[in-house]
Each structure stands twice: as structure tokens, then as C-alpha cells.
Design goal:
Chain A has helices at about 10-35, 50-55, 60-90, 95-105, 110-125, 130-135, 150-175, 180-190, 195-220, 225-230, 240-250, 255-285; strands at about 5, 35-40, 45. By secondary structure, chain A is mostly helical. Chain A has a single domain (about 60-285), classed as MetI-like fold. In chain A, strand 2 and strand 3 (about 45) form a beta hairpin. In chain B, about 50% of the residues are buried. Chain B is mainly α. In chain B, helix 12 packs antiparallel against helix 13 (about 230-250). Chain B is built from 14 helices and 1 strand. Chain B has 2 domains: about 1-45, no CATH class; about 55-260, MetI-like fold (Orthogonal Bundle). The chains are: A mainly alpha, B mainly alpha. Strand 1 of chain A pairs parallel with strand 1 (about 90) of chain B, so a sheet runs across the interface.
């Protein structure tokens, strides 16, 4: 049981100040831009909610948002089941366990633009390992700078490479915490492997999977660097995800008003979907 | 070896292939890379690494990155410790709301904040300093550190605190001499995560620096575009960015699984 203690505020004050400095001032700047028009020289005109209306009606935004949702959906649909399967098939103890875990964590510690550059080198049609194997050994035409479908397959594969380990490590942590007695009981009852998974392992995984799905949702929905370095949003606009489009508008065209409005809409969608995931997945616990 | 071990083995092979390719390419000459496909370096060369270790614009990139990442890790963990203690032990006005608000900052797309961050840190005179990047990365690292530490602290029974107070320990003495050693795995894991997310982030780090504090990852993008197609050099620089991460993982290898579950299993 936690005790009531108003002085606890002093403990959280440093955190509050540091995060607020980083969060509130920039978000107010963004809000400020989102309702004004500027022609440079720090001269601003009140614009109201026009930018929001313009963004919400623009086909370009709808297309980028659609691509973003498709990307995130594919990522979750592939990485979560794959991660669970890998975690289930890993040994529970032994010399190889820490080795496996360290190698699996490695992709997550590589700077994001290096991940993009690495996959770029890996997939170059004539001189990259994957590109060469596909084109010259398997005879499958593959060039992600020309073919939108190949570009999509590549960014999805890259993300699976980069982040599936997060799901694996989380699930694995959940699985090793299940006492052996549970498995013995299941064995005595003659439970099938599916029943063991459904009634022993999956319930134990619920908490960690909630964390995994939330983190994967937030990060894949906000993905920028890796995809930008790898494809630059191309070919054409085929891999221009929401954040890439946002940076194009803000820094490429320097349309600060629309970019700011888009930022806020973007942030609102991320918050809303995260909150939905969170309440849906934790609903059973409260009952 | 059991039959199902084949799945992790295939997965690890898949993880290592692109890394192998990067490392292999870093030992090739640019001429060899562009002349065609070769699975192993034909003319093994250390020239790419020599360039990086002798050119200050390259190796200072590494030093800069390590400085701001370490600074960020120290700041994030030290302010997150008392806060996580408060969240795990006490109820206070607005605690749940505050906790959720902290987490929402983890959800903010860095792309949204890039420009305002530039203006904010320019206006307080911190632009192009290591401190600017370290502070900016606090935005997502402090919430994460609080979240992880709160998970680990929740696993420590409250009786430990109460016994210490009965024994006449003051709060600071209890916290440093008894509580911290108890949750040192959690501190290690939190530090690991702060290191990780600060090390891999580039968009903010690049936006907030120009010359003096420029991260290695930004040096790479610049060189890649200005020097044309120096793939070997790029690969060598990329290979070197993997090493700090690998060292840090080695230290937390025994806590890694629990750490990724944020102490909540």
C-alpha cells in the first residue's frame, strides 16, 4: 500500500522541470506557428485554424497517413507473432542464452542512420549482398530505388531486422518467469502444446506484450531516420511516411504553418492510438 | 541439439548478415567495392580506418557522441531515481496524471520537435554544445528511466524502507547505502536504455549541433554526400558505431531480458 505524501512532489520536481523545459516550450512554439502565417522577417499574421483544415483536407496528408498506418500495421502483424515464436523456441538456460540475447540486442544499439546506410549497402543491386543474390543468383529482379514494391519489402524487412528482438527479449523475459511447476501440471493433465501456450504462456506474456506492442506502435509510427536514409521517401512518394512528409514540408519547403498544424495532428493521432491500445490491453486487469 | 533451435539460429543468421556485409565492406578499397561483387575483401585494407583515426573531423564525431550520451545518461538516471521512488512509494496529488504525461513525451515524434528545439536551444545560448543534446535527449530518456526504475523499485518490499527508518537511518543515508544497492540491476538497466536511445538518436542531435558537438552519425551523412560515393569509409565509420553498443550490452547481458521487460516480470 502506498502512503499519502504531498512532499513526494519535491522528488519529482527535477524530472518535471527538465521534461517540461523540453516538452512545453517546443510544443507551444509549434502551436504558435500552427495558427499563424509568416512571410519571413518575423512578421506573423493570425491564421486561425485554416492550416488544420487545409492539412486535414489535403490528399497528400491522407496518402502519407495511409502509408504510415499500413507500415505500422505490417510491422506489428509481422514482428509480434515472429517475436513470440522465436522466444518460445529459445532454450531457457545454458551457455548460449546470453550469447543469443546479446546478438539479438545488437541491432537496436546501432544508430538509426547507420541502420539505414547499412541496409542501403546491403541491398545495392550489383554490389550489395542481398541485391546481388536476388538479381544474379536467384534471378529475381530487385531494385528498391526503382520499384515501389521492392522498396516497401525492403523497409519492412529492415524494421523486422531492427526491432523484432525487442518483442523477443520482452517475451523471453515473460516466459522464463513461469515456474516449472506450471509445465509439470500441464504435462500431468496431458495438455497439448497449443493448450500450454494458450492457458499458461500467453496469460503470463500479456503484460510484456502490452509493453512491446505499445513501444513498437509508438516507434514505428514515428519512424523517420532509417527509412529516410534508405529510400529518401522514394521511389516517387511511395515510402514517404508521415514523418518524412512532415520534414519535407517543414525544412524542405519551409512552410512552417502547415508543418506545425500537421505536427499537432500527428502527435494527437499517436496519443489517441497509444491510449486506445493501452486501455484495450489493460481493461481485463481492472475488472 | 533440439529441432526447434533452428528458429533462433536462422533468426540470428538473418541479424548478422547485414552486419557482416557492413564490416566486410569496411575492409575493401573503394575501387574493389565499385568494380563488382565479392563476398570477402579481395585486397584487405585498413585504409578506411586509418582515415577515420587520423582525421579530427571523423574521430571528434565519436568523442562528441560519447560525451553527450554519457552526460545524458548521468542526468537522466540521477533525476529519475528520486522521482521513481516517489511514484513507487507514495500517493500524491496528480501522481497518475503526471506519470502518464511523462510517458506521452516518449510518443512525440522527434520530427515534430526538431525545429522548435533548434530555436529553443539557440535562444538560451546552448546551440552546438554537448549539454544541448544531452538535455534534449532527456525528453524521451527521463520518462523511460522513471518507468524502468519504478518497475524495479516496485519489486522491493516496503518493509525494507520501514525497517531502515526504525533503525534510525535518515532518508538520504537509507537511499544511498541500502536502497540503491538493492536496485542496482535496475539502475544498470535504466542507464543502459538511456545510453541506447541517446546513442541511436540522430535527428535532434544533428539539429542541435553544427561543428563543436557534431555527432559521428551526422559526420557520416555529410561525408557520404560531399565525398561522393566513399562506401568503404562509410562502412568503416558505421562499423565503429556498433562497438560502443556491443560493449555496453556485454555489461548488462545478465539483466537484459528482465531489463527489456522494464522490471515488470
Amino acid at each position: 500500500m502506498k502512503t499519502e505524501n504531498p512532499k513526494a512532489w519535491f522528488f519529482v520536481l527535477p524530472v518535471l522541470l527538465l521534461v517540461a523545459f523540453n516538452a512545453l516550450v517546443p510544443i507551444m512554439t509549434v502551436v504558435n506557428y500552427s495558427v499563424q502565417e509568416t512571410f519571413g522577417n518575423n512578421v506573423f499574421f493570425w491564421q486561425g485554424l485554416d492550416w488544420f483544415e487545409q492539412i486535414l483536407r489535403s490528399d497528400r496528408f491522407h496518402a502519407a497517413l495511409g502509408r504510415q498506418f499500413l507500415f505500422t500495421f505490417l510491422i506489428l502483424a509481422i514482428e509480434v507473432p515472429l517475436g513470440i515464436i522465436i522466444a518460445l523456441s529459445m532454450p531457457r538456460q545454458g551457455f548460449w542464452v546470453p550469447v543469443c540475447l546479446v546478438i539479438m540486442a545488437l541491432p537496436m544499439l546501432i544508430p538509426w542512420n547507420v541502420v539505414g546506410a547499412m541496409w542501403n549497402i546491403f541491398t545495392l543491386p550489383e554490389i550489395g549482398l542481398l541485391g546481388y543474390l536476388m538479381n544474379n543468383t536467384l534471378g529475381i529482379p530487385y531494385d528498391m530505388t526503382q520499384n515501389p514494391f521492392a522498396a516497401w519489402v525492403t523497409i519492412i524487412t529492415m524494421d523486422v531486422w531492427h526491432w523484432t528482438s525487442l518483442v523477443v527479449l520482452l517475451s523471453y523475459a515473460g516466459l522464463v518467469s513461469i515456474p516449472d511447476a506450471y509445465y509439470q501440471a500441464a504435462k500431468i493433465d496431458g495438455a497439448s502444446p497449443w493448450k500450454v501456450f494458450r492457458y499458461i504462456q500467453l496469460p503470463k506474456l500479456k503484460m510484456v506484450l502490452t509493453i512491446a506492442i505499445l513501444l513498437r506502435f509508438m516507434d514505428s509510427f514515428n519512424v523517420y531516420t532509417e527509412v529516410f536514409v534508405l529510400t529518401g521517401g522514394g521511389p516517387g512518394n511511395s515510402t514517404t511516411l508521415l514523418s518524412i512528409d512532415l520534414v519535407k514540408i517543414a525544412l524542405g519547403q519551409f512552410d512552417l504553418g502547415p508543418a506545425a498544424a500537421m505536427s499537432l495532428i500527428y502527435f494527437a493521432i499517436t496519443l489517441l492510438v497509444s491510449w486506445l491500445f493501452y486501455t484495450l490491453m489493460t481493461k481485463d486487469d481492472e475488472q | 541439439m533440439r529441432k526447434r533451435s533452428i528458429i533462433p539460429i536462422l533468426y540470428i543468421a538473418f541479424l548478422l548478415l547485414p552486419i557482416y556485409w557492413l564490416v566486410a565492406m569496411s575492409f575493401k578499397t573503394t575501387g574493389e567495392i565499385l568494380s563488382g561483387f565479392s563476398l570477402f575483401p579481395q585486397t584487405f585494407t585498413l585504409e578506411n580506418y586509418r582515415v577515420i583515426f587520423t582525421d579530427p573531423t571523423w574521430y571528434w564525431g565519436y568523442i562528441n557522441s560519447i560525451i553527450y550520451v554519457s552526460l545524458n545518461t548521468v542526468i537522466s538516471v540521477s533525476v529519475a531515481l528520486p522521482a521513481a521512488y516517489a511514484f513507487s512509494r507514495y500517493r500524491f496529488l496528480g501522481d497518475k496524471q503526471l506519470f502518464f504525461w511523462l510517458l506521452t513525451n516518449r510518443m512525440a515524434p522527434a520530427a515534430v520537435f526538431a525545429l522548435p528545439f533548434f530555436q529553443l536551444y539557440s535562444s538560451v545560448g546552448l546551440f552546438d554544445t554537448h549539454l544541448a543534446v544531452a538535455l534534449a535527449h532527456c525528453l524521451f530518456n527521463i520518462p523511460l528511466a522513471v518507468w524502468i526504475l519504478e518497475g524495479f523499485m516496485g519489486g522491493v518490499p516496503k518493509e525494507l524502507d520501514e525497517t531502515a527508518y526504525v533503525d534510525g537511518y535518515s532518508f538520504p543515508r537509507f537511499f544511498v547505502t541500502i536502497f540503491l544497492p538493492t536496485i542496482k540491476a535496475g539502475v544498470g538497466v535504466a542507464a543502459f536504455f538511456c545510453f541506447m536511445f541517446s546513442w541511436v538518436e540522430l535527428l535532434l542531435a544533428k539539429t542541435l549541433t553544427a561543428v563543436a558537438a557534431k555527432p559521428i552519425a551526422a559526420t557520416m551523412t555529410k561525408t557520404a554526400s560531399s565525398a561522393g560515393y566513399e562506401l568503404g569509409l562509410l562502412a568503416a565509420a558505421g562499423t565503429l558505431t556498433i562497438i560502443p553498443g556491443a560493449i555496453v550490452i556485454y555489461f548488462v547481458r545478465n539483466y537484459i531480458a528482465k531489463g527489456f521487460a522494464l522490471g515488470r516480470v
